[in-house]
Amino acid sequence: MDGSGDAQAKAPQDRLADWLAEDMAAVNRLIRERMASEHAPRIPEVTAHLVEAGGKRLRPMLTLAAARMLGYQGIDHQKLAATVEFIHTATLLHDDVVDESQRRRGRPTANLLWDNKSSVLVGDYLFSRSFQLMVETGNLRVLDILANASATIAEGEVLQLTAAQDLATDERVYLQVVRGKTAALFSAATEVGGVIAKASEAQVRALYDYGDALGIAFQIVDDVLDYGGTAAVIGKNTGDDFRERKVTLPVIRAVAKASVEERAFWVRVIEKGDQRDGDLDQALSILRHHGAIEAARDEALIWAARAKAALLNLPASDLRKMLSELADFVVDRVA
Amino acid sequence: MDGSGDAQAKAPQDRLADWLAEDMAAVNRLIRERMASEHAPRIPEVTAHLVEAGGKRLRPMLTLAAARMLGYQGIDHQKLAATVEFIHTATLLHDDVVDESQRRRGRPTANLLWDNKSSVLVGDYLFSRSFQLMVETGNLRVLDILANASATIAEGEVLQLTAAQDLATDERVYLQVVRGKTAALFSAATEVGGVIAKASEAQVRALYDYGDALGIAFQIVDDVLDYGGTAAVIGKNTGDDFRERKVTLPVIRAVAKASVEERAFWVRVIEKGDQRDGDLDQALSILRHHGAIEAARDEALIWAARAKAALLNLPASDLRKMLSELADFVVDRVA
C-alpha cells in the first residue's frame, strides 16, 4: 500500500494495476526484453525514453483484464499486452514526426532528442517486434484482428491529416479519425483478450464494443480538454489542436451553429491557417457561446455509457466492475 | 513481342516477367485493390506515384518464381508477392523521410510532393495492408518469416543510421546493414514462396540462401555504382552515399589501407562531415588507388556465385535457369 489512502479511493486504473500486478510485471519484463536490439543499441535508448516515461499502460491492462475476466490461464495474454503497448508506442513515435511535437508526457519528444529519422525507424522496429510477439501466439484470429486494427489506425491517421484544415469535416469523418487514432487499438486490445480466452462470440463482441466505446469516449474527452474542458480555465496544453488546425468535435458542433461572422473566423483560422494573437480566446468564447464544449462532453458521456452497457454481456466479476468504473473515470475529467 | 529483339536478348528479369505474366497481372490487380482506401483518398495518390513509377517488381517476381518452380498451384503466392511489394514500397516511403531524398526513380519523392507526414503515415498504411494480406494466407510459418524479416529490416535501418559517420564500421556491421536494407526482404520473398509450395526443408533453405545472397550482391553493386562503378566515369547519382556519409564497402576497403593523410581525409569528410568542393573526386582517386571499387565488385561477384550455387539444391527448370541468370545480371552492371 502506498500512502494515498485505501483501495476504494484509488482510481480504477490503479486498482486494475493492483489486481493485475503479476501479469503486468511479466508484461514489463517482456517489453524490456523485446525492446532490446543486439545490433542497434540506439533502439532501446529511444524507446526506453518513451516506454519508461510513466505511461499508464492502459492498453495492455485492457488485454490482461479481458483475458483474465474470462478465465484465461496461459501466458499469451501477456504477449498480446506487450504487443498492444509496442503498437501504441510505435504510433506515438510516428505521431511525433507527424505533429512536429516538442514534448510528450512532460519530456522532450524523441524526435527532438534524436531526430525524425530515429523516430520513424524505431517506430518501424517496434511495429515489427509487436508483429513477432503476436505471431508467437499462433492464433490466426488474433492476427487478423490486429492486422485490421493496424490498417484502421494507419487509415485514421492519414484521414486526420486530410480532414485537418477542412471545415467540411463532419461527425462521421471525425468518428473514423477517432477510431483510427484511439479506439481501434482499445477494441483490439480487449477483443484479443477474449479470443485467446476462448470466449463465446457474444462475449468477444461485447469486449470489442466495450473497447471501442471506451476509446471513443477517451478521445472525445482529450479533444474537449484541448479546449480547456468545461472548467473554462485554460490549461497548460490548451489550444494544441487549434494551432494544428484539427477539426475536432467541439469545433464541428460550433461550426454547425456558426453565424456568418463566426464562419468567417473559422475559415480564417482553420482553413487558411491565418492565426493571430487572441484567436484562441476568440475560439473559446465562440465554443462556449454555442455550448459546443458541453455538447461534446455529453457525447463522451454517451460513449462511456455504451461501454458500460457492453460489459453487461460479460460475467459479473471484480474485473468487470473495475472496467465499468474505468469508463466513468475516463469521462470524469470533463464531467 | 516488342521491338527489342528475340527472347534470348532480353534481360533475365524481363524473361521472368514474361514467364510469370499471368501471375504478375493478378499481383498488380491485387496491389491496386488493396492500395485503395475508402476513407482516406490521399493514400492511393501517394502510393500510385511510387507503385506505378516503373518499379521492376523484382521482389514479387522472386516469390512467384519460387512458388511456381516448386509446383505451387494456388493463389496465395500472389498475395505474398503483393505483400512483399507493399513492404518494399513502405520502406521506400520511410527511407525518403530518413534520407531526406529529393528524387526516387527519376521523379520527385513523395515527401517533397506532399510532405514527411504523408510519407510516414502512408508507409504505415502499406505495412498494415501487407500484414492483412499475409494473414489471409493463414500460414503461420509464412507469418513468422515475414515478421522476422520486418524486424531485420527495421534493425538494419537503425544500424545504418548509427554506422554512418563512423569509420569504425567494419564488414560485419556492413553486412548486417545490407541484410536489413535489401537482403532480408529478398530472402523472405523466396523463402515464403517455397513454404507455401510445401517444399522440403532443404529446398526452403536453398531458396532462403539464394534470396539472401542475391540481395547482398544487389546491394553491394548499388554501393559500388554510387562511386561510379568500375568504369571510372561519374554517373548522375554518383556520390549520394559520400554526401550522406555512409560507410559502404568501397570506403571500408579503402579505409583499411589508408595512409595517415588519407585517414585524416576520411575522418574529415565522413566523421566530421566537413565536405568541400573536390572532395568527391579526391575520394574517388583514393578508392581507385587502393583498388577498393574492384575489391567491392569482387565481393559482389562472390555473393552472386553463392546465389547460383544455392539454386543447385532445387529441381532444374526454366525458372531456375532464369533465376541463375538473374544473379549474373545483377552483378553485370559492375563486372
Summarize the structure.
Chain A has 335 residues and is mostly helical. Chain A has 16 helices and two strands.
- Write down the CATH class of chain A: Mainly Alpha
Outline of chain A, from the CA principal axes?
globular
In terms of DSSP E residues, the strand content of chain A is under 5%
The averaged pLDDT of chain A comes out at 88
* N-to-C span of chain A: 29 Å
Most extensive interface between two protein chains, with residue counts: A-B, 43 and 42 residues
Question: Number of domains in the coordinates of chain A?
Answer: 1
Order of helices and strands of chain A: HHHHHEEHHHHHHHHHHH
Gyration radius of chain A, in Å: 20 Å
Q: Which CATH architecture of chain A would you pick?
A: Orthogonal Bundle
Question: What's the arrangement of strands in the largest beta sheet of chain A?
Answer: 1-2
CATH topology of chain A: Farnesyl Diphosphate Synthase
Low-confidence parts of chain A = 1-5, 102-107
Please work out how many helical segments of chain A DSSP would assign: 16
Descriptors:
homodimer, 335 residues, mainly alpha, two-stranded antiparallel sheet, 16 helices, 2 strands
Structural features, described:
The structure is a homodimer of 335-residue chains. The first copy, chain A, is mainly alpha-helical and 335 residues long. Chain A has a single domain, classed as Farnesyl Diphosphate Synthase, CATH 1.10.600. The first copy, chain A, has helices at 12-19, 21-35, 42-51, 58-69, 76-99, 110-113, 116-136, 140-163, 171-196, 201-225, 240-243, 249-256, 260-271, 279-289, 292-311, 318-332; strands at 103-104, 107-108. The first copy, chain A, has a two-stranded antiparallel ribbon with strand order 1-2. In chain A, a hairpin with a 2-residue loop joins strand 1 and strand 2 (107-108). In chain A, helix 1 packs antiparallel against helix 16 (318-332) and helix 8 (140-163) packs antiparallel against helix 9 (171-196). Chain A starts with 11 loop residues before the first helix and ends with a helix. The model of chain A is unreliable at 1-5 and 102-107 (pLDDT under 50). Chain A binds chain B through residues 37, 39-43, 94, 97-98, 116-118, 120-122, 124-125, 127-129, 131-132, 135, 138, 140, 143-144, 146-148, 150-151, 153-159, 161-162, 173, 176, and chain B through 37, 39-43, 94, 97-98, 116-118, 120-122, 124-125, 127-129, 131-132, 135, 138, 140, 143-144, 146-148, 150-151, 153-159, 161-162, 176.
